[in-house]
UniProtKB/TrEMBL annotation:
PROSITE patterns hit by this protein: FE2OG_OXY
Protein name: Fe2OG dioxygenase domain-containing protein
Cross-referenced InterPro entries: DIOX_N, IPNS-like_FE2OG_OXY, IPNS-like_sf, Iron_ascorbate_oxido_reductase, Oxoglu/Fe-dep_dioxygenase_dom
Keyword annotations from UniProtKB, A to Z: Iron, Metal-binding, Oxidoreductase
Gene3D superfamilies in the record: B-lactam Antibiotic, Isopenicillin N Synthase, Chain
């Protein structure tokens, strides 16, 4: 395990400290690719705790209810259980997840869930607050790349009918039941992958350690890395932010999108279920992605996502944990 530190950046008094915060964020994105934000106004600690409680209530519903909105790969939306096979491991992550795309909220979000009629409304509110914070952060990136300050905000505007930004609720199974039985144990809760979006805001829960990142990726088109993994501690209320492949491409590889994975609990760790929530900022499909130095051919976001899906779902033969998504 590497001793590399994941930068921690306080958002306290955001408006007064904007310049300083911006500098810290850009430096972290250039040098590490992952950073932890805390002291944010919204979503507050309480907003996040309530959202985790809502997510737990959702996952405790029966499979037959949750499967009314099954995962559809072409849409990257819906509910899956033990079904996401990462090419880096070749086996399904032992988890379930629900992907809520903002623009499909009227057509493809669970509705009228028994015992949680407020599910949809609460998810929308949470998405809105995470979106607002995401746009504040993306403004720093726009300025650093010498684009207009609202450049990324316009590409992600929630009010447009084709907004692709997505909230993913995740629940990795408890490993308590299997602990004494002689069955093959999974090696990873989530196999190594990069995110193909622009920017991910990830919410972890205290007690749910296991997330690890691998620094050293030089080009958004490469698979590669080394074998130094750094733990990203889990704490309820804090926000782990990582650069996705699209922002790495959009910045001519200046901001780093890193491989990350979730390991299974080690000796002394809790075997309880692990919950997390990820908000993926994804630009509108027709947005053109090209960095200021034109290092790569211009590509629309929809072409980029399509390529990523092909690249990430194609089985590869690299050594364990080191290939694609
Ligand atoms: O659960 C986590 O901590 C990470 C999830 C993740 O990396 C993803 O869904 O892309
Ligand atoms: Fe990820």
């Amino acid at each position: 395990m590497s001793s590399r530190q994941i930068p921690r950046i306080s958002l306290r008094n955001f408006n007064e400290r904007k310049d300083e915060i911006g500098r810290e964020i850009i430096q972290a994105a250039e040098n590490v690719g992952f950073f932890i934000l805390f002291d944010q106004e919204r979503p507050s600690q309480q907003d996040i705790e309530e959202m985790f409680a809502l997510s737990t209530r959702y996952f405790s519903l029966s499979n037959s209810i949750k499967s009314q909105y099954p995962f559809i790969r072409e849409h990257n939306a819906g509910w899956e259980k033990n079904a996401q096979i990462r090419p880096s491991t070749g086996v399904a992550d032992p988890k379930e997840s629900l992907q809520l795309q903002y623009f499909r909220r009227d057509t493809y979000w669970p509705r009228d869930l028994p015992t949680i009629p407020e599910f949809r409304e609460r998810c929308l509110e949470f998405m809105q607050s995470v979106h607002d914070l995401s746009m504040k952060i993306l403004t720093f990136f726009a300025v650093a790349l010498e684009f207009p300050p609202d450049y990324f905000a316009r590409a992600h505007e929630l009010s447009f009918e084709d907004c692709l930004s997505t909230l993913r609720l995740l629940r990795y199974h408890s490993l308590e039941i299997d602990k004494d039985i002689d069955v093959p144990k999974p090696k990873w809760r989530a196999g190594a992958h990069t995110d193909f979006d622009v920017l991910t805001l990830l919410f972890q829960e205290s007690g749910g350690d296991g997330l690890e990142v691998c620094p050293g990726r030089e080009a958004h088109t490469s698979f590669a890395l080394g074998d130094e993994w750094t733990a990203v501690p889990a704490k309820t209320g804090e926000i782990t932010v990582n650069i996705g492949d699209m922002l790495m491409a959009w910045s001519d590889d200046r901001f780093k999108s890193l491989y990350h994975r979730v390991r299974i609990p080690g000796p002394g760790d809790s075997l309880n279920a692990r919950n997390s929530m990820a908000y993926f900022n994804q630009p509108r499909p027709h947005t053109v992605i090209q960095g200021p130095a034109h290092k790569y051919e211009a590509m629309t976001a929809s072409e980029y996502i399509l390529n990523a899906m092909i690249r990430y779902y194609r089985p590869t033969h690299g050594s364990e944990g080191f290939t694609a998504n």
